[in-house]
Amino acid sequence: MATRKTTAKAPTTTSKAPKKAPVEPVKAQEQVQEPTTNIPTIQARIDHITGYEKVKAFASANIGGAFAIHGLRVVDGEKGLFVAMPSTSFQRDGKTEYQETFHPVSGEARKALNDAVLAAYEQKLAEEQTEDEALDEEQTEDQSFTQTM
Hints:
Layout: H1 28-32, E1 42-49, E2 55-63, E3 67-77, E4 80-84, E5 87-92, E6 95-100, H2 107-144
Antiparallel strand pairs: 1-2, 2-3, 3-4, 5-6
């Protein structure tokens, strides 16, 4: 009797995967476009005007009624006034380095924060100048009413 050898074959699947449509490359213009962001309202106040040459004032800001930032500095730089973000210092390889503890993510947000803080700074300067003029006027009036005998 002849025996027949059979080998079992794994079942083969003949299903074909659907062909994918060719992917078109994204145009450079589409990659560069940034989505427009909604900048929340920013309220700034000047905490202290300094007598320093470079750092003119310290400020705080409230962003959208949800976040507060303290330690903002109004700095007089080579190109005029700007707002420096709060930062911490640390030593690396014997050098002092600084790292911002807060910073705006977009240029639009940075501009909105700078504008709010600098407007508060200008307003505070105007208020102080008005107060100084009022004090000078009071002192002048007081001196003119002094009796001499």
